[in-house]
């Protein structure tokens, strides 16, 4: 099959790879119809991890089931399915509590498993013609009848829609509250949509890219252009000097030269200032800077200069982590199917798999207009 393969930093190519096969009786094989490029893929593409050459990228996958293992009971050949990026076993202590991002079985000793990702297990990605899905009954969301019609909407259930929602859940956004969201990339835009779904009153979205800020506005946010002056001051002006009730971090560790930022701590320290005393902050941006080889390394990888004193004085709280995608998927799927949410609004490019290497270049450079790329293998 054809697949998007990593050769080294800034070097991905479409290559011929072996077709995946059913390896366990619980596996499902999916022919990929849509697979997205994610901001998280850029950590690997840009060389900020030590993912090995030869790996297939792609953790935002959707497609049609073409084969099921002997022990698969629910998923049937022909079903249109979307796969949460987290791979869970469904039966460990964490999966039982819906914490599938922290499955204890699929990537023992580390924080969770995913398709085609550094440090998250040996599973190949879905930027390819076919994907093997372990524990298929647990890891495939069977989509409604209109799956093909709303393909680009449902494909967002694999990651960014639930991840944006997770940011607002971690921050505890309630109806009528004000929220400041750092980052108007795909994840921040989905946090904007989610804050609106949760009934937030004032949703302020910080970024410097005019095209992304425009999308934030279309989704119900107030654009805060950080290139036009301090984002914190702009948020304080809009909140009577108090700060927002809640904050969402949707930027993560950013390559410094790309954003003119020397350090990875900018957004966290600004959030402490832009959120009110006793407010809470949800962090979904990724702060691990390299692929950890051991538990000890994992603990060191995100050291940063954080103003804990101000955070403590303001009595704020922070919640963090990968999204437990599966725990939100049924509800968010229903919102798409009833027409109440249209996450595909942020899709800027629909391309073939052959065009993926070029798309990586543009998306990595945050070229104007390249907000979200969906690939159609
Ligand atoms: P992205 O890189 O496309 O978007 C990030 C945006 O942040 C960009 O538009 C950039 O201009 C903006 N930005 C940079 N510095 C900023 C600053 N100081 N203040 C405000 N905005 C700033 O990435 P994305 O796809 O939207 O993903 C965002 C983050 O979420 C990444 O770190 C990604 O790895 C992470 N992520 C986490 C999960 C999870 O489960 N927790 C899932 C998916 C993605
Ligand atoms: Zn993703």
TrEMBL record:
User: Is Oxidoreductase set as a keyword in this record?
Assistant: yes
Q: Which SUPFAM superfamilies match?
A: GroES-like, NAD(P)-binding Rossmann-fold domains
Name all Enoyl reductase (ER) domain ranges: 8-375
Q: Which InterPro entries does the UniProt entry name for this protein?
A: ADH-like_C, ADH-like_N, ADH_Zn_CS, ER, GroES-like_sf, NAD(P)-bd_dom_sf
- Cofactors demanded by this protein: Zn(2+)
What keywords is this UniProt entry annotated with? Answer: Metal-binding, NAD, Oxidoreductase, Zinc
Does Metal-binding count among this protein's keywords? yes
Q: What does the similarity note say?
A: Belongs to the zinc-containing alcohol dehydrogenase family.
Q: What is this protein called?
A: Glutathione-independent formaldehyde dehydrogenase
Organism of provenance: Hymenobacter defluvii
């Amino acid at each position: 099959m054809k697949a998007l393969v990593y050769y080294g930093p800034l070097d991905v190519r479409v290559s011929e790879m072996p077709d995946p096969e059913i390896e366990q009786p619980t596996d499902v094989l999916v022919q990929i119809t849509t697979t997205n490029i994610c901001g998280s893929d850029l950590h690997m593409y840009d060389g900020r991890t030590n993912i090995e050459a030869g790996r297939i990228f792609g953790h935002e996958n959707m497609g049609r089931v073409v084969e099921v293992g002997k022990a698969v009971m629910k998923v049937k050949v022909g079903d249109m399915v979307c796969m949460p990026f987290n791979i869970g076993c469904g039966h460990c202590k964490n999966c039982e509590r819906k914490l599938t991002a922290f499955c204890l079985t699929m990537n023992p000793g580390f924080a969770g498993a995913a398709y085609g990702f550094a440090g998250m297990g040996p599973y190949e990605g879905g930027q390819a013609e076919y994907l093997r899905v372990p524990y298929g009954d647990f890891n495939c969301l069977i989509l409604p009848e209109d799956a093909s019609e709303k393909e680009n909407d449902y494909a967002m259930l694999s990651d960014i829609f639930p991840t944006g929602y997770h940011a607002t859940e971690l921050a505890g956004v309630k109806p009528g509250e004000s929220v400041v969201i750092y980052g108007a990339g795909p994840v921040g835009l989905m946090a904007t949509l989610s804050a609106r779904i949760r009934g937030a009153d004032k949703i302020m979205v910080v970024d410097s890219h005019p095209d992304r800020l425009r999308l934030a506005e279309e989704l119900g946010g107030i654009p805060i252009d950080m290139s036009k002056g301090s984002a914190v001051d702009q948020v304080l002006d809009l909140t009577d000097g108090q700060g927002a009730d809640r904050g969402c971090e949707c930027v993560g560790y950013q390559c410094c030269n790309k954003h003119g930022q020397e350090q990875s701590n900018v957004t966290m320290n600004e959030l402490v200032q832009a959120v009110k005393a006793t407010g809470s902050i949800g962090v979904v941006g990724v702060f691990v800077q390299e692929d950890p080889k051991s538990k000890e390394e994992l603990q060191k990888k995100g050291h940063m200069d954080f103003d804990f004193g101000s955070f403590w004085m303001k009595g704020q709280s922070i919640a963090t982590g990968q999204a437990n995608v599966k725990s939100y998927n049924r509800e968010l799927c229903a919102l798409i199917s009833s027409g109440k949410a249209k996450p595909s609004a942020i899709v800027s490019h629909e391309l073939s798999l052959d065009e993926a290497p070029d798309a990586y270049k543009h998306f990595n450079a945050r070229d104007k207009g390249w907000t979200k790329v969906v690939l159609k293998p």
